[in-house]
From TrEMBL, chain A:
Name assigned to this protein: B9 domain-containing protein 1
One annotated Gene Ontology cellular component of this protein: MKS complex
Keyword Signal on entry: yes
Segments passing through the bilayer: none
Cell compartments where the protein resides: Cytoplasm, Cytoskeleton, Cilium basal body
Gene Ontology biological-process annotations: cilium assembly
Signal peptide positions (record): 1-22
Amino acid sequence: GNLCHGFVSFLSSFTLVYRCKADIIFVVFQFPEYDNLYCKYCFVYGHDWAPTTGLEEGITQIASKSSQASHRLIWNFPLGTTFKSTNPSGWPQLVVSVYGPDVFGNDVVRGYGATHIPFTPGQHTKTIPMFVPEPTWRLQKFTGWLTGRRPEYTDPKVVAQGEGREVTRVHSQGFVSVSFLIMTKDMKKMDYETGPSGPANKPSATSG
Amino acid sequence: MEAPEDGEEDEREALKRHLRAERQKRKKRLLEQSSIQKSRDADDVKDVTSIQQYSADEGPSEKADDSVVLSKSRTGSQKGLTSRTQHTHHLDDFVKRRLEEKLKAARSKGESLQDKEASLEFPSRLHSLRDRDTVTRFDREADADRAGRRDSPPPLSTRVRFREAARQVGKGLPTAEEAFNFFTLNFDPDPPDVIETSSRRRQKQRKTTDEDEEHEDVDEDIQEENETQSEEAPLVQTQEDLFVIDQSPQDFLEIRKAEYVGYQKLLQLQSELLFTPSFRTVPTSIKLPENMKPRYLEDEGLYVGERPPVSLTNENILENRILKMEEGKKWFGDDGRIIALPNPIKESSTRPPLFHMEEALDPALQTVYRKAVKSKYANLYIAGAADPEGDYQLDVDVSGLIFSHHPLFSREHILGARLAQLYDQYLTRQRNNLTGHLTDKLNGLRNALRNMLESHSGLNPTQALQQRISEYNLEVRNTRHLRDSEQEKDRTLLKNIVKVWKEIKALREFQKFTNTPYKLYLRRENVDRVSDEQDYEDEILAEVVELEAETEEEYQNKLAEYKKRLEEWKLCRKKQKAKKKKQKKKKKGQAQDDTEGEDEEQDVSESEGPTDEPPPKPEPPERPDLGSIEQWVREKALRIRRKPGEAILIPELSASANITASELCPRAEKARREDVARRSLFTKILYNDKEVSRTDSRSLNTDFRVHFGQIFNLKIVNCPQSISLQVFEEIGSSCSLLAQVFLPVPEPSVVTGSVPLEEFEFSSNQRVMFDHEGVGSDVPLSFEADGSNKQSLLTSGKVSCCVSWGIGDDDVPLAPPISQQPGGVHSGKGHLDAVSYIGASGLYDMKKIGEWAKQSRLDPNDPKNASIMQLLKVASSGEVTAPEYFRLEHLQEEFNFVTDEELEKSGRFRLLKLRNQEVAEFRNYKFIPALEREVTDTVFQEYEKRLKEGEVIDTKEHLDSHRALVAKYLQKIRESVINRFLLAKHHYLLSDLVTEEEIPTIGILGINLFKLTEPKRPLKPQRKERKKVTAQNLSDGDIKLLVNIIRAYDIPVRRLQSNKPGQTSHSALQGSIGLPDQIQVRPFVEVSFQRTVLQTATADGPNPCWNEELQLPFSAPNGDYSTASLQSVKDEVFINIFDEVVHETVMNDKNRGKSIQTHIEKRWLGSVKIPFSTIYSQSKIDGTFKVNTPAVLLGYSKEKSHFTNSGFDILRSLSEGTFITLFITVDPQLVPGESVREKFDTQEDERLLQASERFERDAAQRYPDRPCITTVIDLSGKTVFITRYIRPLSPPKELLDEFPNNPLEATPLVARFVSLIPSLPDQVSFSATCDLWSTCDQFLTLLAGDEEEHAVLLCNYFLSLGKKAWLIIGTAIPEGPTAYVLTLEQNLYLIWNPSSGQFYGQYDTFCPLQAVGCLVNADNVWFNIQQYTSPMRVSFDITKANLWKPFFSRTFSHPGLSSIQPEELVYRRTDRAAAAELQDRIERILKEKIMEWRPRQPTRWNRYCTTTLKQFLPKLELIRGQDVAEGHRHELQSLLGDYRISGFPLNLVFSEIRPIIEAVYSTGIHSVQASNVEFALAVYVHPYPNNVMSVWIYLASLVLT
């Protein structure tokens, strides 16, 4: 009986549907030697969220630097995911980690970053600052460089949370730009107002 | 001079352009158009339509233009503007206008575009700057023109060039503005061009007409400036001069010698002119003033910033150069160095990072085109405002202002103001006549009381009457008090008025002139002396009588209380006395020998003693002195009331006094009056914070009143947000803001003509001081002769004005309808929100509330407002009392969504809260419903049930009430421990978050180098470490359990049927006929985990080799893959060895002939079970394990190995048994939970703790893989030294009694007893990796614990049996780090596994103990520092210091730690009845379960067999399952001759019923498919002391043959 009930309430409370189409556009790194990077992404979300369509995590193609002078790497990698939720708490975050070969060809991490998915519908461009954990010792920095095994987060998802981060030291690495196209459904029905207070919905607001 | 002028022109031009743009927009509005045209066309148009007076200031009126206050004010301001400029630049305007007209044609073409430009951000400051730049240049060129040079480049091209340059500076595409300019340039000449041409024209005009002198001056100025200042101009002029000289004929003709100056002379000349500073360091003495030593601030401890880095040479040069200058020394500081500011360069950039790659600018900094938007007030426009007819009009009537204090007040003014104020107060009081009102009330009350008393005088007053009388009395008293205070106030007010008036008079006398027109008359109103005296006396009499009655009553009350207390005291005293007597007696007995003096002392102390303890004797209340009452009343009356017969004084204030003329006044006063005359005041009216208009400037009158009397009609389109007045004071040309007064926005019903003027107070805290008679503001001054009682007055006053809505032509109020005004704040007085008006802090300020109530015009008849009206009456009477309490966050409730109760009631909130608290049931609750109604109570049912029924014992689960209680107790401990660890769990280390390569040591590097030489594919590959995965990002199906079954040894073989006595079974005979010697057994392994069952292929023989990998899926409880959750998984992996038996039955069918039916039957041979928690914490399990084989295996026999007889008897059977080699791991490898890093509180000595920490650290450094424990945590969470756990404790007497003579025999029994206590790993019970050690008594009470507890108990028992015993801390398979027990018996070391009761010799190959870390006994801890850890290769001789490192040594001796174990263990007697009951219940449950597992087939029970089996079980327990006599089997066989029987007894430790069921299920006995199968199940529970139970289950399946 208990199980069955759970199912019923499950269905009826699935009202907050939220669609996100993100597009990892490009990355800018301060160091010109970074090339041939690829990007892993995943979504981190709370208990009350569930993806309905689309992939929760994935990996982009390897992108090389453009021949022009700019240091940009362009992926233009689309990712589309739909979430449903019953509670705005634990709003999804996109966690991006960029990897690429170092001088010796070892795959090393080039940066971690996270951003909350914007909650207003429409197009948004977010620039995510990237960072990597610092080695504890100088020597480790050297050996890490030599062996191609640099410090990494045990779980990239920790960059989406605050707990425990105080023990780490990080080092900024550049930026990843992500463009989002956001659609929401039934948010208003659940009394969540996220849209901009534009003139379109103003008359109704003032008259009420 | 030039630049400002140009700037002004430019500004004016811009303004004009702007105005024009605006005009274009409004062209369609016919009404306005005409007026604008008018103002444009004629200079001297006078705006008569407006009744307002407009200021002539340019800037603010421009602002007003921007705002939406329209038409009239706009035109007015423009007029003002033109009228002002008219005077100065009359010609300019004329010229420009003409030019404009000329350009109009061209401009009209691009008008639409221009509009667009105007709507753009105002042609940007940069732009205008540029323009200004060009203007000056052109002007200069124009000057050059005049000088005769006509080659000035066309201005247009210059402009273009300029633009071009600007474009090159800016990056990327031209902006919209640039593009526009580029394309519109041809037909849209810019203002600079206009000016340029105009100036050119101007010059022409100047030449022809000499009319405007002023202008000429300006131009001349320009010229002069150009000649003197411009950098180019002098050069050009000299050139011209030269040219002129060149042109003279002499120069052409004259020939001169080339002038030569010799080099030396040149140097000499140069040295006269030039100065080359030297590079050398200047001595400090030169740099400092004479006779001064350099002073180094830094050395004195003062902060000196870092100097900017300058190279020494440069510094020297600079110093040398400076020293040459006059007063050069002032550049040097006290330290003899050049004074320098600290280095301004910051190490890090303070600007936000700007990462622009070529054109990729930060999007925030990029210019973005935005469409024009309406101002933010757009939506606040009153509807209908677009229609010009629908304008609304606010009338602001500024009548005037009165200063209650002004800096220019003379002393007399201050007094006068005070007098006026007091008089006002007097008048108000008179009007209210509160005193008369209260007197009447008092008289009425008295009459009523008298009547009441008279009418009931004879009767005995009833209860109700008495109540009423007392109420009346109370009321009379209160009213009297009120009246008295009012009277007193009246009296003091009158006195004050008279006093102030006297002061004024004295002051006038003193200063010999009069400043104020105030004159106070005191009108006497004579009264009838007799009646007045009568009244006075009556009043006093009445009051005295009342007071007497009151005091009497009070006295009675006090007396009654006194009596009561006296009684109490007496009682107390009696008790004391009795006590004292006793004490005395005692003391006397003691002190008989003492001297008398001491006795006296004693007496004293005794007499003191009791007075301390009992309450002091109550004092009887004094009888009140009734005589003094009258005295007091009379005094009071004299103080607060008019004397009887004295005339009533009525003050009247008039302004009829003559003010002394200025000529007669002293100098200071004259100066003051002059100052007053110089001042004038005006007010600005601000609407929505924008100035809309201002009053005329009116001079300050001598009475400090200013009358404006102006009404401003504001036509508004915006909703009124605020209306305010700013009072300005003007002295000469400068004006200063005095104060700002905010006016409330009127209600729509408030229309002009219907509202009276209101007064609004203002004040300013500016400090003003004068040297004349004016007292100034915020300056302390005193009226006393001695200068005491200083007070400082602030400029303050009142503005009288009113705001109302205008009335249209047809008497329609020009007010917007209420509904259109959003929000309560703007909706006028009627809806004035109290909080927003007063402000949060003012809610308990009575004055503000009063003000608010007055402002909002509450309806006094509305019962809702009754309390406020009441309050107001008190407040307005001048009595303002602040409440005596202070409320913090008095608005807190306003910010609560709902009340706390409602919040608690909300199921959704509760759900969220519980999940956040990580309550087990909700920890992973997904999708908390979005709506409250979807949260049903059923969600909480289980949780609430747990909370409530935690107390109730679940007998079904536990079968045993004691165990249920224990489980509850354990639960409680668990909760407390979990709470302790919850915090610690959130402490992170770097290694938790970041994986990092460790710093390679030389050794590792060496190994790595060595590895390079390793073969790529070695012949014997070894398992490598895999990457560990954190548990949290896993989901169902991700984790698999890998079980690699390699081989087994010594599997029991089938007993050949031929060996059986009696007849042979038909089928078995057939099976064994073929190759009786070869097919001994066909074993296979079945692994079951979480009800998933997988099996290997079948192998042959007693020593099979499978080498097979089985993958079992793993799912965590509730899908929670957190470390804590995984640790508490209780599931076990069962590895069962079965024998596959094939029966072939020959079927004789008449139709088809013979057919053979094959039955495959599996028979359980033994099992190994490994808890998942072990696999999880070990991450892999690799080794050879002893298989748990049943004591009796019907139909099988063990293949006897050959033994060499060793010295010790017991050792013989040690290697006996079946073994299996396994490798188990979890894929992917999970990170086991880290132990909790927290320092626990302890009672151990700090020195000991430090030593143990050092000991453990050293051990971990030298031998990282050897466990070393010196301190452990006990159940209460305290750190305890390990040796405290070891103490000889005697085992239960029953165990020893069984072998009274042979303690050696008792040893296995004791071990068995210990092993029968259930095992429960700590991490399972506490869901966190922490090793808690309970003491032996706790262990026996809890009846659950892990290996350490078992080991400690066993060790303690062994010690009490007189053995030499130690605790081994080591690692074993499968447990991992664990504790075993080591005993020394007859020079042989025995290793005991406390959880199984098994023991092994030191050299036993199959000993599960793999490594020995340290040994512990009650005295010491020894750490293994030998080369090897394996028990076989370790020497257990702890006396050898080179093999075992002791913790306590000579340097740090044993401090004599006491044991924490109890002295003796108390055992409860064995309860046989409970055991029997348990036995029945287990049997019943198991039978039910077996039937349940066989849903398709009928389950028949063979009773005969069951009873037979039951008899065997006690015997098995007696011999502890070892070495069953063959006879047993024979016996059984003979009893059940007709059955093919297979079965076995299971021996289990009893903790709960669930593991028993699991164990039975895993044997698979229920899966026999044969149709004629029968079952036998016998259960025997053998009770040991202290509720330790040994459970035997005999399972058998019988097939009738």
